[in-house]
Amino acid sequence: MVEETHIQLKLKEIRELAKKVFLANTCSTEMAEVLADVIMLCERDGPASHGLFSMYSYVGSLRNGISNGKANPVAEYPKPGVIRVDGDNGYNQFVINKFTQELVNAARETGIATLAIRNSHHIGPLRQDLEPIAKAGLVAFSCVVSKALMTSYKGNKKLFGTDPIAFACPRKGKEPVVWDMSTSSMSFMEIEVASTKNEQIQPDSAVDKYGNPTLDSVAAMDGGMLLPFAKHKGSAIAFMVELMAAGLTGGRFAFENSTSDDPDFAGANRGQTIIVMDPDIIHGPGFVDRVSEFLDAYLESTPERVPGDGRLERRQKAILDGVRVDRELLKTVQSFL
Q1: For residues 131 and 143, what is the distance between their CA atoms, to the nearest angstrom?
Q2: 66-101: pLDDT as tens digits
Q3: The domain 73-184+228-301 is classified under which CATH number: 3.40.50.1820, 3.30.1370.60, 3.20.20.140, 3.40.1370.10?
Q4: What CATH number is given for 1-70+309-337 in this structure?
């Protein structure tokens, strides 16, 4: 009898496995709890490429000392509404978990507040960082830098990271509007997952190591370069992210990060900026009513869902039924124990 290629796991089982792996690989209990949540939430809401599949990157970075599993972030408060954090070479999500309530309180006091993170690392979607802020009734924007994986428009070398951005906003009667996106046409991890299955990638997503456009995911991973979405427009947004997430925070620009072909790509020191705004102060009462008016107009204009809402459909199904996990991937993750 042929063994099924996938197995159904409950979210609790995924979180427990991830926590055990992090604890077995130099993480403090507090760090392991936060990162296990990151993995579970990626499996629950997507993208799965940032869930259990990304564990090899965490473990590689922890084992070879690129990242610090026992980090003790230190904050500075140079002005009201500004929280500047040295992440002690840990993970941004750990910093965010630690300082989100302070950030929310600062925004409610001043109307707008910023969390600037340096000397830390980020693996995972940015939307997880912002959804709790929007649930608190605030509007948020974030961007983060990686190591150099993407060329600029018409460029001839890796200059940018995938340089994602994210946005979150409260709304009436439903989970917040939350979306994130890379400024590359496809995210690095989407292409990496495709390469493990020898699948083609979307047109205009990458060039091979000779600079030729390619649909071959393996060729894209073998010394190739990612391309920005929408040509010069995506390139301009990545340009902004480099300055906001690395330049502004004191982090490293993508081209300054560790060798772009290093397999521990996610071990890059990633600057991240989160900007939070209190609509009750900036707009005054009634902001969520205006949000509802806009969402109604948006949905009347298109059959497409509200950006980011795909996660809610996946979430409900995952909560009820769990998620399908590739058996070989599961064996790989278990081998990290």
Answers
A1: 14
A2: 899 999 999 999 999 999 999 999 999 999 999 999
A3: 3.30.1370.60
A4: 1.10.1530.10
